Amino acid sequence: MRREKSYRGISERLAREYLCKLGGEMETGDTEGDGDVVADDWRASISSEKVEIGPTVELTEVTVVFDGDEDALEPLIEDFSQKAMRAGG
Asked: Does the pLDDT value for residue 87 go beyond 70?
């Protein structure tokens, strides 16, 4: 199963940190790295871009592509989304 979700106001570094706290590990073994976060039954790829909100405000939008077993992804995405919502303040 593959699911793609976008989150605003969170950094790639923080997204990787949250995914590691939810049971994943960096492919490189370094939570500051740029690699995917993987676990036995899921993988998360992270990218980001600046998006305009109105004429003068930009936010970072992080996109996470979750791949894996549906039974593993549903609770992972829910838990990650709750953490990501709190990140912006």
From this structure: no
What is the tens place of the pLDDT at every residue in 29-74? 554 567 899 999 999 999 999 999 889 999 889 999 999 999 999 9
Radius of gyration of the chain (CA): 13
Contacts of 56 (CB under 8 A, 6+ apart): none
Which pLDDT score, from 0 to 100, does residue 62 have?
95
Sorted by where each starts, the structural domains of the chain and their CATH numbers stand as: 2-87 (3.30.1370.80)
Question: How far does Cα 34 stand from its chain's mean position?
Answer: 12
DSSP for 38-89 reads E-SSEEEEEEEEEEEETTTEEEEEEEEEEEE-HHHHHHHHHHHHHHHHHHT-
